[in-house]
Protein backbone atom coordinates (compact mmCIF):
# COMPACT_ATOMS: atom_id res chain seq x y z
CA UNK A 1 0.00 0.00 0.00
CA UNK A 2 1.21 3.50 -0.85
CA UNK A 3 1.52 5.71 2.22
CA UNK A 4 3.35 8.78 3.52
CA UNK A 5 1.19 9.07 6.62
CA UNK A 6 3.36 10.22 9.57
CA UNK A 7 3.24 8.48 12.95
CA UNK A 8 0.83 10.03 15.45
CA UNK A 9 1.90 9.73 19.11
CA UNK A 10 -1.70 9.91 20.38
CA UNK A 11 -3.75 6.68 20.74
CA UNK A 12 -6.20 6.19 17.85
CA UNK A 13 -9.90 6.73 18.40
CA UNK A 14 -10.57 4.20 15.60
CA UNK A 15 -8.50 1.02 15.26
CA UNK A 16 -9.22 -1.47 12.47
CA UNK A 17 -7.24 -4.67 11.92
CA UNK A 18 -7.60 -7.35 9.22
CA UNK A 19 -11.17 -6.20 8.53
CA UNK A 20 -13.07 -8.41 6.07
CA UNK A 21 -16.66 -8.39 4.88
CA UNK A 22 -17.78 -11.14 2.52
CA UNK A 23 -21.18 -11.64 0.89
CA UNK A 24 -22.57 -14.72 -0.80
CA UNK A 25 -24.22 -14.00 -4.17
CA UNK A 26 -25.36 -17.37 -5.50
CA UNK A 27 -22.25 -19.54 -5.73
CA UNK A 28 -19.95 -16.50 -5.77
CA UNK A 29 -18.29 -14.89 -2.74
CA UNK A 30 -18.03 -11.10 -3.00
CA UNK A 31 -15.12 -9.68 -1.01
CA UNK A 32 -16.52 -6.23 -0.23
CA UNK A 33 -13.66 -5.64 2.23
CA UNK A 34 -10.59 -7.82 2.04
CA UNK A 35 -8.21 -7.19 4.93
CA UNK A 36 -8.34 -3.46 5.75
CA UNK A 37 -6.04 -1.97 8.42
CA UNK A 38 -6.75 1.61 9.46
CA UNK A 39 -6.10 3.94 12.41
CA UNK A 40 -7.83 7.30 12.81
CA UNK A 41 -6.84 9.63 15.64
CA UNK A 42 -8.83 12.18 17.58
CA UNK A 43 -9.38 15.49 15.73
CA UNK A 44 -8.39 14.08 12.33
CA UNK A 45 -10.27 15.16 9.20
CA UNK A 46 -10.19 12.16 6.87
CA UNK A 47 -11.68 11.60 3.42
CA UNK A 48 -12.34 8.01 2.32
CA UNK A 49 -12.42 7.72 -1.46
CA UNK A 50 -13.05 5.03 -4.04
CA UNK A 51 -15.02 4.23 -7.17
CA UNK A 52 -18.29 2.32 -7.12
CA UNK A 53 -17.60 -1.20 -5.85
CA UNK A 54 -14.40 -0.19 -4.04
CA UNK A 55 -15.81 -1.03 -0.61
CA UNK A 56 -16.12 2.49 0.75
CA UNK A 57 -19.87 2.17 1.48
CA UNK A 58 -19.29 -1.17 3.22
CA UNK A 59 -16.51 0.38 5.28
CA UNK A 60 -18.75 3.33 6.14
CA UNK A 61 -21.50 0.97 7.34
CA UNK A 62 -19.06 -0.86 9.60
CA UNK A 63 -17.52 2.39 10.88
CA UNK A 64 -21.05 3.55 11.68
CA UNK A 65 -21.88 0.27 13.47
CA UNK A 66 -24.68 -0.33 10.96
CA UNK A 67 -23.09 -3.65 9.97
CA UNK A 68 -20.59 -6.12 11.44
CA UNK A 69 -17.50 -7.54 9.73
CA UNK A 70 -17.14 -11.16 8.67
CA UNK A 71 -13.81 -11.21 10.50
CA UNK A 72 -11.28 -8.79 11.94
CA UNK A 73 -11.46 -6.18 14.66
CA UNK A 74 -12.96 -2.69 14.87
CA UNK A 75 -12.36 -0.80 18.12
CA UNK A 76 -14.09 2.59 18.48
CA UNK A 77 -13.08 4.69 21.48
CA UNK A 78 -11.92 1.53 23.32
CA UNK A 79 -15.16 -0.31 22.51
CA UNK A 80 -14.65 -3.61 20.57
CA UNK A 81 -17.65 -3.16 18.28
CA UNK A 82 -17.06 -6.45 16.42
CA UNK A 83 -17.93 -8.31 19.65
CA UNK A 84 -21.05 -6.31 20.58
CA UNK A 85 -24.68 -7.38 20.16
CA UNK A 86 -27.28 -5.37 18.26
CA UNK A 87 -28.61 -3.46 21.30
CA UNK A 88 -25.06 -2.57 22.37
CA UNK A 89 -24.25 -1.39 18.84
CA UNK A 90 -27.37 0.79 18.88
CA UNK A 91 -26.09 2.50 22.02
CA UNK A 92 -22.64 3.01 20.45
CA UNK A 93 -24.28 4.56 17.37
CA UNK A 94 -26.27 6.93 19.55
CA UNK A 95 -23.46 7.97 21.88
CA UNK A 96 -20.31 7.80 19.77
CA UNK A 97 -21.28 8.53 16.15
CA UNK A 98 -22.93 11.50 14.49
CA UNK A 99 -24.33 10.63 11.05
CA UNK A 100 -24.66 13.09 8.16
CA UNK A 101 -26.39 11.81 5.02
CA UNK A 102 -26.50 13.01 1.42
CA UNK A 103 -30.32 13.15 1.51
CA UNK A 104 -30.49 14.84 4.97
CA UNK A 105 -32.97 12.24 6.36
CA UNK A 106 -35.07 14.80 8.26
CA UNK A 107 -38.63 14.30 9.50
CA UNK A 108 -40.76 16.42 7.17
CA UNK A 109 -43.47 17.22 9.72
CA UNK A 110 -41.09 18.13 12.53
CA UNK A 111 -39.40 21.48 13.11
CA UNK A 112 -35.64 21.90 12.96
CA UNK A 113 -35.60 21.86 16.76
CA UNK A 114 -37.57 18.59 16.95
CA UNK A 115 -35.34 16.97 14.32
CA UNK A 116 -32.22 17.85 16.29
CA UNK A 117 -33.77 16.61 19.54
CA UNK A 118 -34.53 13.19 18.04
CA UNK A 119 -31.24 11.36 18.90
CA UNK A 120 -31.57 12.42 22.55
CA UNK A 121 -34.87 10.58 22.92
CA UNK A 122 -32.73 7.41 22.94
CA UNK A 123 -29.95 8.84 25.12
CA UNK A 124 -29.92 8.18 28.86
CA UNK A 125 -27.53 11.05 29.50
CA UNK A 126 -29.18 13.87 27.56
CA UNK A 127 -32.91 13.18 27.44
CA UNK A 128 -33.79 15.59 30.27
CA UNK A 129 -32.05 18.61 28.72
CA UNK A 130 -32.77 17.74 25.09
CA UNK A 131 -34.32 21.08 24.08
CA UNK A 132 -31.47 23.12 25.54
CA UNK A 133 -28.83 20.99 23.82
CA UNK A 134 -30.73 21.07 20.50
CA UNK A 135 -30.91 24.88 20.56
CA UNK A 136 -27.17 25.04 21.29
CA UNK A 137 -26.41 22.70 18.37
CA UNK A 138 -28.54 24.80 15.99
CA UNK A 139 -26.71 27.90 17.20
CA UNK A 140 -23.42 26.13 16.43
CA UNK A 141 -24.47 25.79 12.76
CA UNK A 142 -25.88 29.36 12.57
CA UNK A 143 -29.59 28.42 12.48
CA UNK A 144 -30.95 30.16 15.57
CA UNK A 145 -33.46 32.00 13.38
CA UNK A 146 -34.77 28.76 11.83
CA UNK A 147 -35.48 26.77 15.00
CA UNK A 148 -39.20 26.35 14.34
CA UNK A 149 -39.04 25.95 10.56
CA UNK A 150 -39.90 22.61 8.96
CA UNK A 151 -37.63 21.06 6.29
CA UNK A 152 -39.86 22.20 3.41
CA UNK A 153 -39.37 25.79 4.62
CA UNK A 154 -35.58 25.50 4.46
CA UNK A 155 -33.06 25.57 1.62
CA UNK A 156 -30.90 22.55 0.84
CA UNK A 157 -27.95 24.05 2.69
CA UNK A 158 -30.09 24.87 5.71
CA UNK A 159 -31.47 21.33 5.78
CA UNK A 160 -27.94 19.94 5.76
CA UNK A 161 -27.04 22.29 8.60
CA UNK A 162 -29.97 20.89 10.60
CA UNK A 163 -28.64 17.40 9.86
CA UNK A 164 -25.17 18.44 11.06
CA UNK A 165 -26.67 19.92 14.25
CA UNK A 166 -28.51 16.63 14.83
CA UNK A 167 -25.22 14.76 14.36
CA UNK A 168 -23.45 17.01 16.88
CA UNK A 169 -26.09 17.11 19.61
CA UNK A 170 -24.87 14.06 21.61
CA UNK A 171 -21.20 15.15 21.49
CA UNK A 172 -20.11 12.17 19.36
CA UNK A 173 -16.57 10.83 19.14
CA UNK A 174 -16.74 10.98 15.33
CA UNK A 175 -18.80 12.69 12.64
CA UNK A 176 -19.42 10.26 9.78
CA UNK A 177 -20.57 12.04 6.61
CA UNK A 178 -21.74 10.10 3.55
CA UNK A 179 -21.48 12.28 0.41
CA UNK A 180 -22.62 15.30 2.48
CA UNK A 181 -22.55 17.72 -0.48
CA UNK A 182 -23.98 15.37 -3.11
CA UNK A 183 -27.38 17.11 -3.24
CA UNK A 184 -26.09 20.68 -2.92
CA UNK A 185 -25.16 23.35 -5.43
CA UNK A 186 -21.57 24.61 -5.64
CA UNK A 187 -22.14 27.72 -3.47
CA UNK A 188 -23.85 25.74 -0.71
CA UNK A 189 -21.18 23.03 -0.94
CA UNK A 190 -18.54 25.64 -0.11
CA UNK A 191 -20.58 26.76 2.92
CA UNK A 192 -20.97 23.20 4.25
CA UNK A 193 -17.28 22.40 3.73
CA UNK A 194 -16.39 25.61 5.59
CA UNK A 195 -18.62 24.46 8.47
CA UNK A 196 -16.76 21.13 8.57
CA UNK A 197 -13.47 23.03 8.74
CA UNK A 198 -14.75 25.11 11.66
CA UNK A 199 -15.90 21.98 13.51
CA UNK A 200 -12.51 20.36 12.86
CA UNK A 201 -10.76 23.46 14.22
CA UNK A 202 -12.87 23.09 17.38
CA UNK A 203 -11.54 19.55 17.91
CA UNK A 204 -14.13 17.37 16.15
CA UNK A 205 -13.04 14.15 14.44
CA UNK A 206 -14.57 14.02 10.95
CA UNK A 207 -14.71 11.21 8.38
CA UNK A 208 -16.13 12.07 4.97
CA UNK A 209 -16.94 9.31 2.47
CA UNK A 210 -16.90 10.81 -1.01
CA UNK A 211 -15.97 10.28 -4.66
CA UNK A 212 -15.39 14.00 -5.31
CA UNK A 213 -11.76 15.14 -5.37
CA UNK A 214 -12.68 18.76 -4.64
CA UNK A 215 -14.48 17.72 -1.44
CA UNK A 216 -11.70 15.33 -0.38
CA UNK A 217 -9.15 18.08 -0.95
CA UNK A 218 -10.46 19.96 2.09
CA UNK A 219 -9.68 17.03 4.40
CA UNK A 220 -6.25 16.68 5.97
CA UNK A 221 -5.84 13.03 4.93
CA UNK A 222 -7.08 10.91 2.03
CA UNK A 223 -7.56 7.14 2.26
CA UNK A 224 -8.29 5.34 -1.02
CA UNK A 225 -9.99 1.97 -1.48
CA UNK A 226 -10.07 -0.33 -4.51
CA UNK A 227 -11.61 -3.80 -4.78
CA UNK A 228 -12.14 -3.98 -1.03
CA UNK A 229 -8.53 -3.13 -0.19
CA UNK A 230 -6.88 0.06 1.04
CA UNK A 231 -4.39 1.05 -1.66
CA UNK A 232 -3.15 4.43 -0.38
CA UNK A 233 -3.11 6.60 2.73
CA UNK A 234 -1.55 10.06 2.43
CA UNK A 235 -1.78 13.55 3.89
CA UNK A 236 -3.82 15.48 1.33
CA UNK A 237 -0.90 17.63 0.20
CA UNK A 238 1.15 14.47 -0.50
CA UNK A 239 -1.56 12.43 -2.25
CA UNK A 240 -0.30 11.85 -5.83
CA UNK A 241 -3.75 11.37 -7.39
CA UNK A 242 -5.12 14.51 -5.76
CA UNK A 243 -2.08 16.51 -6.82
CA UNK A 244 -2.58 15.32 -10.41
CA UNK A 245 -6.21 16.43 -10.20
CA UNK A 246 -5.17 19.86 -8.92
CA UNK A 247 -2.70 20.22 -11.80
CA UNK A 248 -5.37 19.24 -14.37
CA UNK A 249 -7.81 21.75 -12.89
CA UNK A 250 -5.16 24.47 -13.06
CA UNK A 251 -4.65 23.67 -16.76
CA UNK A 252 -8.40 23.62 -17.48
CA UNK A 253 -8.43 19.84 -17.98
CA UNK A 254 -10.47 18.96 -14.91
CA UNK A 255 -13.47 17.73 -16.90
CA UNK A 256 -11.41 15.15 -18.80
CA UNK A 257 -12.08 11.67 -17.45
CA UNK A 258 -8.72 9.95 -17.65
CA UNK A 259 -6.52 7.65 -15.60
CA UNK A 260 -3.45 9.70 -14.71
CA UNK A 261 0.08 8.33 -14.44
CA UNK A 262 -0.11 8.59 -10.64
CA UNK A 263 -3.36 6.64 -10.53
CA UNK A 264 -2.08 4.00 -12.97
CA UNK A 265 1.09 3.50 -10.89
CA UNK A 266 -0.89 3.32 -7.64
CA UNK A 267 -3.26 0.71 -9.07
CA UNK A 268 -0.40 -1.30 -10.59
CA UNK A 269 1.56 -1.32 -7.31
CA UNK A 270 -1.58 -2.32 -5.37
CA UNK A 271 -2.25 -5.21 -7.78
CA UNK A 272 1.32 -6.48 -7.43
CA UNK A 273 1.14 -6.32 -3.64
CA UNK A 274 -2.21 -8.13 -3.67
CA UNK A 275 -0.85 -10.90 -5.91
CA UNK A 276 2.13 -11.32 -3.59
CA UNK A 277 -0.20 -11.50 -0.59
CA UNK A 278 -2.27 -14.20 -2.32
CA UNK A 279 0.89 -16.20 -3.00
CA UNK A 280 1.93 -15.96 0.65
CA UNK A 281 -1.60 -16.91 1.74
CA UNK A 282 -1.50 -20.00 -0.52
CA UNK A 283 1.84 -21.07 0.99
CA UNK A 284 0.43 -20.99 4.53
CA UNK A 285 -2.95 -22.52 3.65
CA UNK A 286 -3.39 -25.98 5.26
CA UNK A 287 -3.62 -28.86 2.78
CA UNK A 288 -6.68 -31.07 2.74
CA UNK A 289 -6.14 -34.69 3.70
CA UNK A 290 -7.03 -37.25 1.08
CA UNK A 291 -7.27 -40.07 3.61
CA UNK A 292 -7.61 -40.41 7.35
CA UNK A 293 -9.31 -37.84 9.55
CA UNK A 294 -12.50 -36.26 8.23
CA UNK A 295 -12.14 -33.20 10.45
CA UNK A 296 -12.39 -29.90 8.64
CA UNK A 297 -9.12 -27.98 8.36
CA UNK A 298 -8.93 -24.74 10.34
CA UNK A 299 -10.18 -21.63 8.58
CA UNK A 300 -7.53 -19.64 6.75
CA UNK A 301 -7.66 -16.50 8.89
CA UNK A 302 -4.52 -14.50 9.57
CA UNK A 303 -5.17 -14.31 13.33
CA UNK A 304 -7.89 -14.96 15.84
CA UNK A 305 -9.89 -11.98 17.07
CA UNK A 306 -8.16 -12.18 20.47
CA UNK A 307 -4.75 -12.06 18.79
CA UNK A 308 -5.83 -9.08 16.69
CA UNK A 309 -7.07 -7.24 19.80
CA UNK A 310 -3.77 -8.00 21.56
CA UNK A 311 -1.96 -6.47 18.58
CA UNK A 312 -4.16 -3.36 18.79
CA UNK A 313 -3.52 -2.90 22.52
CA UNK A 314 0.25 -3.38 22.18
Please characterize this protein's 3D structure.
- With 314 residues, the protein is an alpha/beta fold.
- It has a domain at 42-68 and 95-252 and 263-272: P-loop containing nucleotide triphosphate hydrolases (Rossmann fold, 3-Layer(aba) Sandwich).
- It contains ten helices and eleven strands.
- It has helices at 56-63, 86-96, 112-117, 130-140, 156-168, 186-201, 213-216, 240-250, 261-284, 305-313; strands at 2-3, 12-25, 28-41, 45-49, 71-76, 79-80, 97-100, 174-178, 205-210, 221-226, 229-235.
- The chain has a seven-stranded mixed β-sheet, sandwiched between helices. A four-stranded antiparallel β-sheet has the order 3-2-5-6, with helices on both faces.
- A hairpin with a 2-residue loop joins strand 10 and strand 11 (229-235).
- The model is unreliable at 290-303 (pLDDT under 50).
In short:
This protein is an alpha/beta fold and 314 residues long. It has a domain at 42-68 and 95-252 and 263-272: P-loop containing nucleotide triphosphate hydrolases (Rossmann fold).
